[in-house]
């Protein structure tokens, strides 16, 4: 039997509920007070040291997916399964906001695929809105390049009924077909979707099943990645529950492909993801 992860840091204030794990500095739950969960948590989630957590907002760093060179493992980089250090936690009693700051450095986690000295900091602010910012600093003597993504799993009533507004006219790479395309109109879902948009939003997800709208805003992002595996591919993934594929869609802030970030020695870059929920009432 796998060892269990240490329990997450729990947020329960007048503004919201939520939780964040030190592994991966990963936000796994968030909801404004009185609202249904905004983030998806797999019914088959694995909470074990060194295993990726299929929930919330995994941090993909310093590469995305399979990476830009052959043999880069694990998928999505090593930061999401590393143990980050919690360096600060603050709470504002007046607003109900709680902010966590996690830090990871090359002294704690590294890879033959990315041996450069670095420091990354994840700042997560839980409140009536959720804000997550990833700051990368080059602490070494040579430039380096990174891919990065805040790989957000959004909970939905039924992915076949939702619509995403804000991508009209956006160019994208369709990873399912391997082709470049331009999107027109509102984005709806009728099959496997894995699209890297050359857009930073904002976008609005309309969810009639849960009678709400989720608004995604980003800063420092060159891409929005939108993903759902659909039924057949989801069955091939051990930590996605059998019927879970219809209950989430990923809308991710990212810098990938030609938008990979190059940092000179001493230089920093911040990628930010903001999530807001509005009821249809």
UniProtKB/TrEMBL annotation:
InterPro entries: Aldose_1/G6P_1-epimerase, G6P_1-epimerase, Gal_mutarotase_sf_dom, GH-type_carb-bd. Pfam families: Aldose_epim. It is an enzyme of class 5 (isomerase). Keywords: Isomerase. Gene3D superfamilies: 2.70.98.10. It catalyses: alpha-D-glucose 6-phosphate = beta-D-glucose 6-phosphate. Its EC number is 5.1.3.15. Belongs to the glucose-6-phosphate 1-epimerase family. This is Putative glucose-6-phosphate 1-epimerase.
